[in-house]
Amino acid sequence: MAISLIRRLIQALFVILAMTVIVFVGVSVIGNPVDILINPDANQAERLRLIAHYGLDQPLWKQYLLFLQGLMHGDFGDSFVYGRPALGLILERLPATFELAISALLIAIVVGLPLGLYAGLHPHRISSRIIMSGSILGFSLPTFWVGLMLVMVFSVELHWLPTNGRGATAEMLGVQWSFLTRDGLAHLLLPAFNLALFKTSLVLRLTRAGVQEVLPQDYIKFARAKGLADRRIIFVHVLKNLMIPLVTIIGLEFGSLIAFSVVTESIFAWPGMGKLIIDSINLLDRPVIVAYLMMMVVLFVALNFLIDVCYTLLDPRVRLDAKA
Amino acid sequence: MSHLLEVRNLVTEFGVKLGLRAVNDVSFSLKRGKVLGLVGESGSGKSVTGFSIMGLLDRPGRVAAGRILFDGIDLATLSDGEMRRLRGKRIAMVFQDPMMTLNPVLTIGTQMIEAVLAHDPVSKEVARQRSRDALGLVGIPSPEERLSAYPHEFSGGMRQRVAIAIALLHHPDLIIADEPTTALDVTIQSQIISEFQKLTEQSNTAVIWITHDLAIVSRVADDIAVMYAGRLVEMGSVRNVLGDPRHPYTKGLIMSVPSQNRRGEPLRQILGMTPAISRLPSGCSFRTRCDRATEACAVMPDLMAEDHRAFRCFHPMTRIDA
Fold first, then answer.
1. Which ranges carry the ABC transmembrane type-1 domain (chain A) (predicted)?
2. A247 inside domain
3. Which of A45, A259, A320, B78 has its CA 20 to 30 A from that of A281?
4. Residue from B101, B120, B166 whose CB has the most chain A CBs within 10 Å, to mutate
């Protein structure tokens, strides 16, 4: 396990390096931050002073080396826009996104798993067909449209839920969370549901497919031949086999929930990282973009590792070290 | 002595509209402690007969007619719950492929203990104890440690021993063994057969041994029932049926087994293939492959009884034909 962890960390390091190069080149191709950042009314002396301040007067490779040098000291650079450390900006927004993503994932599992199980166990019932048709809708309706509809129905027409922001928050472990207050929870509900819709359909369909794959297996028939109750067969024999593919997908999807919650955060003005990164890309705020993407790489590598660990717990045939 | 199991005119159908009869008008009976060899080619309905008795037919299969009397109870009329309480407790089953019958993600111990607890309200400790003893009984070394092992850590033969141990946990009256040695090496096959025989004899357990291997039947069974295309075509004691078959199909099966007595001769085979149950010929199902068939065979022959045996043929073989 330790060896496998070290190997992964080294791999992650290379991925991060490659990614930073791509971002540096990419941003410089898109445009010159100077054009956006500096007030057009500023005089030439002021312009030159600011360009030098950002280090943009240097050639690109030199800027990159300077950035690496900063990294060695744990410095990700200052945001061009806010003038504050980029990492701090992102970490400030992290809890909001995290909270949203976890809520969405919970909804996806709590709703998708039982429905998928039901549809898999009783594929011919009309209710199962309705569930499956619903999941197609969940798959294909665009997030932004559903988000707008949710706002229109529940906020504008019915006045049940607020439209934007995190609402009141409460502190836990030194971080502000919305779900701890009634008002915050009301604010969280719509965006979490909007973000969860696609994932719920995914979990549902995966579960159903898994059930249909496991049920005809001989070991299920043998379990029935032993005279086990249906409950035990479904919740132990079927579910435990089902968890293996499900954990992989859920793990990876959690990463994508965090990384791509942009649309939902924009619609509901949720002050998370997604909104920050979109603004930063628009303003060519390179330090923030780089720092954000580096965090995402680390997140995905960590998730992958966690999934592998879960694998060894769920499937006795898999051993991490044996894969070397 | 009364019969432990009596199957009367069993009909098992697949597909509601088509009414495909995988098992058609099958009757046989079995006494306590006796072994019945149920023989036939793939698709002859022998496994489906076993699953019909167990109440484990896959949808859309269902018992459409007939009675399955087990110790006086008609299994076909039992509710799902009542049937479940019988399964594993009084009627157990051993499957063909030991690689597939044990759940890969649960330990052997879990799978055995749950089988004990499904029928007996004992503590987990007692259940574990009984599982360990059962493993020891079927010849698995260091059973205590093996309880916490997973199926993939066992060889095929060992897995089949585990499956047999599970089947024997509750000392059932009847075990349905569906080709339990087909997937095993020949040397292991022999071990498992003798082990199985020994254990069932000790506990006076009746066995329905489903197989296509006549050599195994001649070794383990008291009686034999030969199935073809969903119907019984011949039935009787092993000695009678194998030594002096009446039905040409039985004869064909026997002739296609390699034998010391016919060295050097080409192995005779039954020409053609088992017809699909959706396209059976009218009358005797075997007539399209039978060299004794006449016009009379266009009508389905009844089972004809003849001292302690029965066969379904208008032109039965006699010893002289052999």
1. 94-307
2. yes
3. A45
4. B101
